[in-house]
Amino acid sequence: MRRKTVFAILSLLALAPVITQAAGPTAAALAFTCAGCHGTDGSSVGPSSPSIAQMDPEVFIDAMQAYKGDQSNSTIMNRIAKGYSDEQIKGMAWFFAKQKLRLQPQQHDPQLARLGAELHDKYCEKCHEDAGRPGDAGTLAGQWMPYLGYTMADYIAGKRPYPRKMQRKVDAAIKDQGDKATSALIHYYGSQH
Amino acid sequence: MSDFNRRDFIRLATGATLASGALGFPGLLLAATPKVVVVGGGVGGCTVAKYLRKLDPKLEVTLIETKKTYTSCFMSNEVLSGDRTLESLTFDYEGLKRHGVNVVIDYVSAIDPSKKLVFTAGGDQFGYDACVVSPGVDFKWETIEGYDETVAETIPHAWFAGPQTLTLRRQIESMPEGGKVIIVAPPNPFKCPPGPYERAAQIAMYCKHHKPRVKIIILDPKDRFSKQGLFRQGWSQLYGFGTENSMIEWIGAAGGGTVEAVDPSTRTLQAEIEEFQADVINIIPPQKAGKVAFASDLVDGDWCPVNKLTFESSRHPNVYVLGDASSAAKMPKSAYAASSQAKVAAAAIVARFNGIEPGEPTFVNTCYSILGDEHGISVAAVYALNRDNNTIESIKGAGGLSPMDASPEQRKREVSYAHSWFKNLIEDMMM
Fold first, then answer.
1. How do strand B180-184 and strand B280-283 relate by DSSP bridges?
2. Residue A41 distance to chain B (closest CA, Å)
3. How far apart are CA B136 and CA B130, in angstroms?
4. How far apart are CA A141 and CA A150, in angstroms?
5. Cα–Cα distance between B330 and B343 in angstroms, integer?
6. pLDDT, tens digit (0-9, with 9 covering 90-100), for B16-63
7. Edge-to-edge strand ranges of the sheet holding B259-263
8. Is B8 in Cβ contact with A80 (below 8 Å)?
9. Is some CB atom of chain A closer than 8 A to the CB atom of B19?
10. Long-range Cβ contact pairs of B403-406 (< 8 A, separation 24 or more)
């Protein structure tokens, strides 16, 4: 019985290459250190550092690599991302992908949010499906609004890798509604907890 | 969960590797429900209690703390500028109870590592399989002549957030325009290395609007301090530092900044070269590990040596020391560091109870300072353990300070992230 158990454990370990491959810290141990800013298991209680729970792992990896390579403007993440290997980033990505996202209500302007909803349906929904809930284009629904604001400003200022398709759509939304387009979208996403 | 599943979960969660003869760890005879007693309800203690229960809900975890509520030191300088109330920094322990932690309000007088017992002033004793001690710092009162706990009621240290924070705030509010504030900074190592310098900025933030001719002098027994370049730049952008009309002046060791004595009746400080008189004095005394660490033979000198793989005391087995009281070079004595160490210790304790070796530790520190309404700065580090010299080393090429000459927008964002850091650290430790 005991030998059988040992064997079962060993098989299980073999099936979890990310966790057992390196002699270094596990993905969970690495991910635990993020909680002081991003909340326990990646659900931030705000007011601005983003939630990273349930994040699409590819989006997580791309974001971390962009910080690591100074491709994305940031205040602190560029300094932190450089502390991790590609493997470790991958491990953290999968850890957070498996965590349940806990969102909180945010103060928003309902009128702006209604306009944002229209803009979202017209320009954003195709990639940011289901009101921007976690997916392969990131998490927008319920994300902390100041963070969405910083990120959007950085895209527009060319301080963050800006997918061409997104740029075209954002430009179109701004052409449609002027300067309030981006804040309308932010208020809409902020309302989607 | 069955034992087998639970062990697998623990292995995956803690990174423990299979020890030889894994399923029966020699020399560890545990009850079915291993007991952990945590001494101290600050960041280290609360975080380790929460994460122990998170990693293994079967554990019986008891946290013993003197005060009924926790008041955060980090962000408490904002009370001095009037930007924040003390209540906004104060939290009860109900959240920890919801995680299944037994919270006992009592004073731990000592730990007996040979009998594995924790004794309280209330006359209780608690047996443990592992004891985690996170008592924070205590002051070396004797190092400044004339300063003691009674004097500190009128010449506050305000280095534990609480009544003294409010005393200092009231004194700043009632001091005359054109008056003088002196902050006496401590020598290294001490908790919250950027704290005294952020404090000067927060006091200046209030005075700039209400008493613009006030002078704030920092007397420092050191020649360098944390985030020095960024503080000097921020002070000069916001408070005229370096000009004739600067609100803030810093006098380091070479300039005679070491304070030797205080005369409370005249509010006069005797420093190495000259005397200073002020309307408001804030003395942050030199520091050492909290009392229970001394009472329990956990110190070597002023601090508690630990095996940095697990944070187990180097002096007594089954006792772990976290946070400010531990000798955790090269991590600073900060809230984030204590939180990070707590998670390493929790995983190591759970691994040990399950007869498996601890996983490789990983640590982070981030620390924000707010110099003005829209001016935040930070320092960050990612650390790994160098087992050869038992030193926690920051990973080269990572971490470091906010850049000098950053744009106002970046400085403003850091204020908002500082507030997020505060809220999430609190949430992660006790909610």
1. parallel
2. 9
3. 19
4. 16
5. 17
6. 554 443 444 444 556 679 999 999 999 999 999 999 999 999 999 999
7. B259-263, B268-271, B275-277
8. no
9. no
10. B404/B229, B404/B230, B404/B233, B405/B233
Query: CB within 8 A of A68, min separation 6: which ones?
Result: A78, A81, A82, A84, A89
Contacts of B281 (CB under 8 A, 6+ apart): B155, B181, B182, B184, B262, B267, B269
Checking B158-164 for CB contacts under 8 A at 24+ apart, the result is B158/B76, B158/B80, B158/B282, B158/B284, B159/B73, B159/B191, B159/B192, B159/B195, B159/B284, B159/B285, B160/B71, B160/B73, B160/B136, B161/B71, B161/B72, B161/B73, B161/B76, B161/B79, B161/B86, B161/B89, B162/B71, B162/B86
Question: Between chains, do B417 and A76 touch, taking CB under 8 Å as contact?
Answer: yes
CA-to-CA separations, B31 to B28, B60, B140, in angstroms, rounded? 10, 11, 41
Give residue for tokens 């990131």: A138
Structure tokens at B12: 């995956």
Facing residue for A6 by CB, picked from B22, B360, B417: B22
* Secondary structure of residue B130 in the 3-state scheme: strand
Assigned token pair, B190: 């001490």
ipTM tops 0.90: yes
Q: What is the pLDDT of residue A155?
A: 97
Cα angle B407, B411, B415; round to 5: 165
Asked if the Cβ–Cβ distance from B423 to A46 is below 8 Å, we say yes
Q: How far is B114 from chain A (nearest CA, A)?
A: 31
Angle between helices A180-191 and A110-119 (to 10 degrees): 100
Percent of the residues in chain B that have a pLDDT greater than 90, as a whole number: 93
CA distance B191 to B187: 10
Q: Is B211 exposed, middle or buried (0-12, 13-18, 19+ CB in 10 A)?
A: middle
The token pair that represents B390 in the structure block: 């038992």
> Closest partner residue to B427 among A19, A24, A45, by Cβ?
A45
C-beta of residue B139 within 8 angstroms of C-beta of residue B286: yes
Specify the DSSP class assigned to residue B32.
Answer: S
Residue B231: is its pLDDT beyond 90?
Answer: yes
pTM: 0.93
Q: For Cα atoms B126, B127, B129, give the angle at the middle one, nearest 5 degrees.
A: 135
Residue listed under structure tokens 């700039």: B208
Q: What is the pLDDT of residues B260-307, one digit of tens each?
A: 999 999 999 999 999 999 999 999 999 999 999 999 999 999 999 999
Return d(Cα B80, Cα B430) in angstroms, integer: 25
Cβ atoms of B341 and B383 within 8 Å: the answer is no
Neighboring chain A residues of B366 at a CB cutoff of 8 Å:
36-37, 76, 80
CB-based contact, B12 to chain A, within 8 Å: yes
pLDDT of residue A13: 43
Count Cβ neighbours within 10 Å for each residue of B319-333 and write b for 16 or more, e otherwise: bbbbbbbbbbeebbb
Q: A26: which chain B residues are within 8 Å (Cβ-Cβ)? A: 12-15, 359-360
Strands B60-65 and B102-105: parallel
The answer to whether B135 and B288 are in contact (CB under 8 A) is: no
